Amino acid sequence: MQRIGVVAKAGLERAAGHLAEIASWLQARNVGLVFDSDTAVLARSAGARTGYDVAPSEDLPRQVEMIVVLGGDGTLLGTAGRIAQAGSDIPILGVNFGSLGFLTEVTLPEMFASLQSAIDGTAQTEDRMMLHVCVDIANQRVIERIALNDVVVNQGALSRIIELSVSVDDEFMMRVKADGLIIASPTGTTAYNLSAGGPIVHPHVDGLAITPIAPHTLTNRPVIVPGSSHIQVQPIMHGGHIDAFATFDGQTLVPLRNDHVVSVRRADKPMRLVRASARGYFQVLREKLKWGET
Fold first, then answer.
1. Cα 212 from Cα 38, distance rounded (Å)
2. In 3-state terms, what secondary structure has residue 139?
3. Which position among 73, 89, 127, 243 bears the catalytic label?
4. pTM for this one?
5. Of 177, 105, 181, which Cα lies nearest the Cα of 150?
6. Domain boundaries in the chain?
7. Per-residue model confidence as pLDDT tens digits over 5-45
8. In whole angstroms, what is the distance from residue 18 CA to residue 120 CA?
9. 3-129+270-289: CATH homologous superfamily?
10. pLDDT value at position 20?
């Protein structure tokens, strides 16, 4: 790799010194570096003045061969979305500055070794399914996005039950009364889906999880459907005005009406995640979920 992008969580002051170190380390190896605009401000605060270029975050995926993310899973989710929207599939190396870090699993002591492996072309990468999401009304496209973790349809500010009609591959599946519904990729099953009682799905499994959030009827259980499925969700609003929203990776919020349809299917391109070679998937789960601890 000859040109690498770096993105840090907005306002993450404790990452500033590491950004300056990365700039010096890459410059010593004649590897080009591009910061996104906000990250460049952090780097300059730690004394990094030269040896890198700066690009808007939306343009960064088009200018580099890999992006290093310093932050938590939320920062990586935003970066993955921008890579997908750019039509790219460049890999992401996530360095954990967050509290959990299922995705940003590389630790600070491992960062430069992982970077060296990526530059050498020996790093382990793993494809993670992404979700292509559309919201339509009367066959008119309202919004179209790519998400990595999940799509959530739920109520607004007030905690009220919402009724949803769900279809899979044009076959009616169920009408569910619940606090909402989660459609999660395998990667996303360790996020909101897990908190809502949904199953953990290994990232190599080609499936999607459909999980009701606190369903009114306890027989409405989570379901795993094939990864090739086309899932459609429509809110059913009886009478008065009820606020409903679709949320993509917790970062994009779209208001819904009775005639809106939320469609979810597997995206054409996966996200490519650079793995920490020292740890397998189940070790990450044990560390993050504290399995086996007493």
1. 37
2. coil
3. 73
4. 0.91
5. 181
6. 3-129+270-289, 131-266
7. 999 998 889 999 999 999 999 999 999 999 999 999 999 99
8. 21
9. Probable inorganic polyphosphate/atp-NAD kinase; domain 1 (3.40.50.10330)
10. 92
